[in-house]
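Reviewer has doubts. Consider these tokens.
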Amino acid sequence: MLDKGAWRVRVIRSLILLSLMALSGCVGLSLTGSTEKHYQRGWVSVDDEQFYLRSCQRVARVPVVAVPSELRRLFNQRGVSAPLYVEWLGAFANTAGEIRIDELRYVSVDPSSCQQTLAGVLLHAQGYAPGWQANITEDKVSVFLPQQRRTLVFPINLIVREGADWVWGSDIEVRQRKHHLSLRVQPTACQDTRNWFGLAVEMELDGRIYTGCAKRGNLARLALFSGYQLTDNVATRDVRLNLDPDGGAGLTEDYLNNQPALTSKGHWQLLSGGRLLVTLDDPDPQLRQEALLFDMAADGSLYMRGFHPRYGHNGLRLQPAGTPMPWESGGRRQVP
């Protein structure tokens, strides 16, 4: 175990290395590139040696053409053909609708897994003997120690990449007592009493070592798609809604009357209960500023409740027409 002084020296060295790599253009944090992998989730089943995926947003299942050996082992270990809930990194489905599971991140048998989204949490870590939990958000690390009935909240002062490891470090003072945190996340298989994780954690808190497992949170956005449109049986108009990963939104309405389409811009946000709010801050000159509230159906479509003066009774119902929404927002990775 490193003492605080040695830990700080190691952190400073890592920061210098990262700075030099950034200046030379070698830091691999960018999300762009042909090998881009996206965080995804759903239920995986196997039938006559063929694996299938049913995502949390779609009812239909699609074939999985590449499965990690660890997932095969977990299926064989159970000895039953019941589906497993899986979170993984991989490319979105190809034009044939086939899925590749490249990097396994989380496996569970909990039937409510698709309803667990960990809203606002970038990374959730937990361990046992003794029990502890930690949630990493954009600006802080919250550590909960159940046996001590204590929660410590550390501002994120430092994030360091050491090879494949990610390290968060911070110091605080509470009631005239100083606390030091170092939380290291490693791409190593980890398992608790019920679930399998693709990330292992070692947390040093005030000189004591805690071990556990970790997974990503903020999963509600994975139910969204980059584009939506009216169903094919509507022939009197064409309405399309586009959502950007960073929160921008665009609404295009073409009433197929040889007039220019109405184009509005704004932003979107997810509300509690899985509802989507689209606010048109920059509406088409023929329209007024307004907010559109959508519910999400089990098949991934969006629908409005009640009456809308422009869309009538029960408003709009839009079906997915684009790629799934990526987990990341912004141009760089925030967690492993």
